[in-house]
Amino acid sequence: MPKPRRTATAKLTRPSLLFLSTPQEVAEHSQAALRRVRARLDRIARTKGRRTVDNTLRPFNDVSNLLSQVALQTQLLFNVHTDAAVRDASNKAYLAADSLATEISLRRPLYEAFRALDVSRADAETRYAVTKILRDFRRAGVDRDEATRAKIKALNDEISEIGSAFDRNINEDVRSIQLDDAAELEGLPEDYIARHAPKDGKIAVTTAYPDALPVFQYAKRADVRQRLQKEFMDRGYPKNLEVLSRLLEKRNELARLLGYEHYAAYVTEDKMVRSARAAADFVEKVERAAGRRVQGDYATLLGRKRQDTPGAASLDAWDASYYTERVRAEQWAFDSQEIRPYLEFGRVRDGLFDITGRLFGLTYRRVRGVPVWHPSVEVYDVYEGGTRRGRFYLDLHPREGKYSHAAEFPLVIGLRDVQLPQAALVCNFPDPRASAGPALMEHAEVETFFHEFGHLLHAILSGRTKWLKTGMDAIEWDFVEAPSQMLEEWARRPESLARFARHHETGEPVSRDLVERMERAHEVARGLWVARQDYFAALSLAYYSRDPAGLDTTALAEELNARYYPVPWHPGTHFQCNFGHLNGYSAMYYTYLWSLVIAKDLFSAFAKQKSILEPRLARRYRKAILDPGSTRPAADLVKAFLGRGMRFDAFASWLNRGAP
Questions:
Q1: Of 415, 475, 453, whose CA–CA distance to 636 is shortest?
Q2: Residue 619 in contact with residue 361, Cβ under 8 Å?
Q3: Residue 81 and residue 200 in one domain
Q4: Distance between CA atoms of 658 and 660, rounded to whole angstroms?
Q5: Would the pLDDT of 441 be above 80?
Q6: For a designed S-S bond to 422, which of 68, 83, 412, 443 qualifies (C-beta 3.0 to 4.6 A apart)?
Q7: In a 10 Å sphere around its CB, with 0-12 CB exposed, 13-18 middle and 19+ buried, how is residue 531 labelled?
Q8: Domain that holds residue 612
Q9: What does the alpha-carbon distance between residue 175 and residue 191 come to, in Å, rounded to a whole number?
């Protein structure tokens, strides 16, 4: 009879790869870790006798944990390190880890070991973990002949290389337009204009998000919006035109080799939606639900444009954000610039900590004196009472060579009695150190902050599962956005905003009237926003559900734009070349709307309460949705909180609120 394992205390392991400063160090440390992975795998394969949790599942979990740390940490370095050579070395290390993961998934003896493992008397979490491990082995193609497995391995390695190139071409392609004087920035906030002083007689405006998005919203000069949007839409072009075609071809080849009709069928099979057909049906359901609202929204914006351009027959591609702002200002007496003085970066960060701490029973303690990859990075430990639950890193301001959007990067997956979870938040918000005055945020940036912090909290709070396969990282992909989208609600409501939104000069809290006007104004063109998201979902499915041979990706993108989104395509642009989700999410962009339906349904329980800051329901939500990770199917988690399955009603109600 085996001896009982001694209960360990979860440790805060040092994410050792993060703080390496030379390409040589990255290569040496990652290669050494991968050698250890291979050696441990060989020991599992050599195990004699009856297969048990202790001699098969547990060591496999340990190996997977080590491999995941190499992949996760080098992926972050690739996206944030200041040295291009270190970024390149990190990318090579990530690809090597990814290649080894593919190799492991195709090891037939390892698969047979798990087939021989009897967990019928084990706890439910262990049984579910083994069920998913066996499923993933089969989906990888482990039961194919040796020659086919070798071809699968080569294809997966090639796909990883292509996808990496696709991402790199987007990250590194920051473009700009040159303006002759500040008059061309008419309509932009004063602090924006102050940050864009002329150099050598010219004003440069880049395609980085903090530069570009305000121009699309506020710039009165249509030609300025048009010029910048042209560059913004063409990031990654022309390089990614050919790269995307190869990505589609190789993924289609892989899916066919594995016995699937196309890659969309393969990638949706183990998600909540279960099939590409069901995902496409969902896209069509959203289109039908939004149809009348979309028409009304378009007519409203076009009517406003005609006040500036009498006789205008249609909106142009660079008009939607601008005229949405104009209608908000004129019909609802709300200008997005009106709330910016209340959204100073430091207060927003502290308010986010305050609200989530209150809801979920957490405190965040700043940690100083630990290594970081850039001086602007802040480190925090998460505590529940006197117990540390994990650590996170905040890398929140733009710099050259850094990931240009917003994302949460897991670094160490939490495991019960083994290690505490760690994650990083990477965003591009206004930098207090680079601002002539206060670093004021757009409200949309505040929503993004809450959204991405929601991912981070999910990673931290789910970090006490027994196995990697039941942790947050293994949850169905089309559920993973729902908790983050729901947390955005606390960035919008008067009750929660009043806790941190204070005028940077007077200290006065934001008024309920201003927040309510903002909420009504944000209902403007909601149907168009949904239609655009639905277009992205349809496009990603279309790219991956047909034979890519000879496919003109630009023509298809333009064709589907005309079907799903009434604002016309920007002539001569190549949006698909900077649609980064086509790599990471592949066919699954529908995830965002699918998860939003769930998020609105989940929040309906909070909306019924007297206060959305009341902790009791939030703690029950945490216990049902966040803490379990993927110890059960996501649909079961939703049912555990709501007492029923997901419904479309709350989303439909939100969609049509304020319809013209």
A1: 475
A2: yes
A3: no
A4: 6
A5: yes
A6: 412
A7: buried
A8: 341-524+591-656
A9: 22
